[in-house]
Design brief:
Layout lengths: L9 H14 L2 H4 L7 H35 L4 H12 L1
Helix pairs in contact: 1-3
Keywords: Transcription, Transcription regulation
GO molecular function, one term: protein dimerization activity
Protein name: BHLH domain-containing protein
């Protein structure tokens, strides 16, 4: 790898922003369909917030699953199977 950075054109940035808008739920980007520079920055901030909320949700669900597995009578093999499913 040479130390040179490849430049991304404005068109490529706009295309990536459009793809990002498609991935986010409507309530995170419904105001930003025009995709101007200012809305792109806002969209990136909202994307970060959305990712943080997903991390929080995963953490909460993992805790609930752990509690459920602790309260349920699984033998070692069954617990291993369930853990391997949730790791994938």
């Amino acid at each position: 790898m040479s130390g040179r950075r490849s430049r991304i054109s404005e068109e490529e940035i706009n295309e990536l922003i459009s793809k990002l808008q498609i991935l986010l739920p409507d309530n995170y980007h419904h105001r930003h369909r025009g995709s101007s520079r200012a809305s792109a920055a806002t969209l990136l901030k909202e994307t970060c917030n959305y990712i943080k909320s997903l991390h929080k949700e995963v953490s909460e669900l993992s805790g609930q699953l752990s509690e459920l597995m602790a309260a349920t009578d699984f033998n070692g093999a069954q617990a291993e199977v369930l853990q391997s499913i949730f790791r994938s």
